[in-house]
Design goal:
30% of the residues lie in helices and 38% in strands. The chain is of the alpha+beta class and 113 residues long. A 5-stranded antiparallel sheet has the order 4-3-2-1-5, with no helix packed on it.
Length: 113
């Protein structure tokens, strides 16, 4: 299997859009209640795909901000990351979107060095 098929549909890096989205969430006063690591096997189980999932409540609904790390991409909705995935670990976090934004910026800065 070629690398192209693994990365198919990944799209452009959404890092800056994610930072903007987190700023909007912070202004709305939202807070993350849990963070989880989801795993989904692909390529017949030869590799795993991992997604960070930050859970929160807004407008009376349980929502999830899902962050994929290949080329940074995210989705923010009520759906689980994958129907056939597994939760590796889930913890109570009580982080603000601003705190997550700071962590992401620090990771990116470290990654460039």
């Amino acid at each position: 299997v070629g690398v192209e098929s693994i990365l198919e549909g990944v799209g452009v890096d959404q890092f800056d859009r994610l930072l903007e989205h987190l700023e909007v969430m912070e202004r709305r006063g939202l807070r993350f209640g849990h963070v989880a690591i989801w795993r989904q096997a692909f390529l017949g189980g030869a590799a795993d795909h991992h997604t960070l999932v930050y859970e929160y409540r807004a407008g009376g609904r349980h929502l999830c901000l899902k962050i994929d790390w290949g080329r940074l991409a995210f989705r923010d909705d009520a759906e689980d990351p994958s129907a056939d995935g597994d939760i590796i670990e889930r913890k109570w976090c009580r982080h603000s979107p601003a705190a997550l934004r700071q962590q992401l910026v620090a990771v990116k800065r470290t990654h460039r060095a």
